[in-house]
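FORM 7B - TANDEM STRUCTURE REPORT

SECTION 1: FIRST PROTEIN
SEQUENCE AND TOKENS:
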Amino acid sequence: MRYSLKQLAVFDAVADLGSVSQAADKLALTQSATSMSLAQLEKMLGRPLFERQGKRMALTHWGMWLRPKAKKLLQDAQQIELGFLEQHLLSGEIRLGASQTPAEHLIPDLISIIDNDFPEIRIELGVQSTSGVIDGVLNYKYDLGIIEGRIDDSRIVQEEWCRDHLTVVVSAHHPFAKRERVSLAQLEQAKWVLREIGSGTRKIFDSSIHRLIPDLDVWREYEHVPVLRTLVSNGPYLTCLPYLDVEKYIEDGRLVALNVPELEMERTLSFIWRADMTENPLADCIKREGLRMMKGRPTVL
């Protein structure tokens, strides 16, 4: 073998960060040593692995081909090293991306279980919209993702974790709050504040409502659930959010769930990972413990 694990680690870090200087900081190397290792690897392979795009280093076609293979070699090397050091095989860092609902209501319990049973696993958590998590998995930002809804992409493997449902809510002072049932015509005349386009919540809501009401009066779109809850609690708006996000507000009377029989908005929360990802025991551990955590809970949250 003409290349070294150090050179592959440099390549992997530059691919992750898009910067030689940031890769050097991550690997505790000088910038000149990092540049030299990368140049040596490209020379040995006889192919350019990066091209400069402004201040960032972007992968070439060859770099994209090498990336998953380099990651597998580095992961295998880490497991060998930990094994000979007599450490627990399930140790190291995993990058987890999650959309807002699971991040707020489910991930804390999951991290607590991992911390208790596998204390040598470090979870780096990123919280984004569903589309952001998917992009992060595809771009190697995350090793494992947790998203809302379904995805149809051959580059991604999806495994259902659990199910939840969306509900339409208003403030306790809204005229609709006293109604036993709200009609589609009334929804069409209402003022709505919703999650941003691209979020899993918005995709499910749009797919359910647009077949019934083609033109909804959407006044505002926001990324953060607390903003929407406060707007609805204090104003004349309707919103649609996961029940997990509004459950406590309904229980204490600040929000009221509307009965709209025509709307069916159950959805899945799923683990996702790249189809080309090699065996990753840390990701497998998180998935296994996540499924175990949900045993005994309601089928639909």
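SECTION 2: SECOND PROTEIN
SEQUENCE AND TOKENS:
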Amino acid sequence: MVTPASPLTLSEINKMSKEEFVATLGGIFEHSPWVAESAYASRPFGSVGELHEAMAEAARIAGREKTLSLLRAHPDLATRLQVTPLSAAEQKGAGLDRLTPEEFELLNDLNKKYTDKFQFPFILAVRGKNKDDIIESVSERVNLSPEEEWNRALFEIGKITKFRLEDLLAE
């Protein structure tokens, strides 16, 4: 995947073969290159927003089981498990790499309660947030209904992936 230090243009994206497109954008939706593969047919894109909408639409219409696999592909926030470089950078920016042992235990407990209830990890676009915002958000959202939280998790994935595309592409 190309790094933000060497942004691509939409023109370059629109000229890519399907294989290049998936290799370049396959990580935008966490461990779900099928999203980029599905969005490829919507080329050419006139803006980063159009590209993002095509990818988001591919995720929305994929069917419940495939969408659940997308939700489950996201790492738990602040776990010390292996995460993708994009997720690690996003979590570090929110201070999740600097939790006290007590904060780590609290977030770990909230993550477990959340995952037990919804059967997928807590997903939040953490850019611009700090560890207190994140703990507050999971504390509130664990009390939502399954359908409300399904929709909220997909909304958050939309925010995360839009940030990632904007970082990757020069418009």
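SECTION 3: OBSERVATIONS ON SECOND PROTEIN
The mean pLDDT is 88.
The beta strands are 8-9, 169-170.

SECTION 4: SIGNATURE
Preparer initials: ____
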